[in-house]
Design the sequence.
């Protein structure tokens, strides 16, 4: 009988910037090292579909460089944005483990590199090591929370509240600390509109209202979100 792997906390890359995970870095270090040893490295161009929707993912995947845009295309052609996956994060896990079709496309943004491991390797590790199974369960629970939280934010009573809710959601899953009380989001107005099912024009108006209220600061494909205690008092304008 094979012995369980010894576990330590997930690792970060010292040369990739604070908070940036190494490949498979959401797993304990020894598990991540095992997965990296068996992984196949792949490179993608901007716009390549790395994981297509409506198919079962046959391997587990982690981002090495660049980002994956997770979005679904509805029957009428509309785009529904969910989140970005950055370096160290994994995509397609629920599909690979549950043997269910992936409901979204994972599309490469700019130059993107990934590592792929056959899902049978991870399943075997889960069967013989409860710590690995717990790590996978936590990852899938996190993705489930992300999805449910996004749905909840999408049902706020006003578009203004929905825009602010989605920004706060994305700050949790994709944000980086800009300064005390401020989170930077690498997100475009197109992504926000796609997450909400609203027009870019209406979303732009609400973002300007939030900026005027001191809740955010707008930039090019980047938004700074201020925590409530860090902003100047102001009433949020609703259009």
Sequence:
């Amino acid at each position: 009988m094979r012995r369980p792997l010894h576990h330590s906390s997930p690792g970060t890359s010292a040369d990739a910037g604070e908070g940036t995970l190494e490949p498979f870095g959401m797993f304990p270090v020894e598990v991540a090292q095992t997965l990296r040893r068996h992984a196949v490295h792949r490179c993608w161009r901007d716009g390549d579909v790395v994981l297509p929707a409506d198919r079962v993912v046959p391997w587990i995947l982690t981002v090495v460089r660049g980002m994956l845009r997770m979005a679904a295309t509805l029957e009428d052609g509309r785009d529904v944005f969910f989140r970005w996956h950055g370096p160290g994060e994994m995509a397609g896990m629920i599909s690979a483990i549950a043997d269910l079709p992936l409901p979204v496309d994972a599309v490469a943004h700019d130059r993107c590199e990934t590592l792929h491991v056959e899902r049978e390797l991870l399943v075997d590790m889960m069967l013989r090591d409860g710590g690995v199974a717990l790590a996978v369960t936590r990852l899938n629970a996190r993705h489930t929370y992300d999805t449910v939280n996004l749905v909840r934010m999408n049902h706020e009573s006003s578009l203004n509240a929905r825009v602010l809710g989605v920004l706060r959601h994305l700050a949790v899953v994709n944000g980086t600390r800009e300064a005390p009380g401020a989170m930077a989001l690498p997100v475009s107005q197109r992504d926000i509109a796609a997450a909400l099912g609203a027009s870019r024009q209406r979303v732009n108006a609400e973002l300007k209202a939030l900026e005027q209220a001191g809740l955010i600061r707008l930039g090019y494909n980047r938004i700074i979100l201020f925590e409530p205690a860090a902003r100047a008092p102001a009433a949020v304008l609703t259009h």
Q: What stands out?
A: Helices lie at 29-37, 93-98, 119-128, 130-153, 159-174, 189-196, 200-212. Residues 180 and 230 are 8 Å apart (CA to CA). The first helix runs from residue 29 to 37. Confidence is low (pLDDT under 50) at residues 1-19, 230-239.
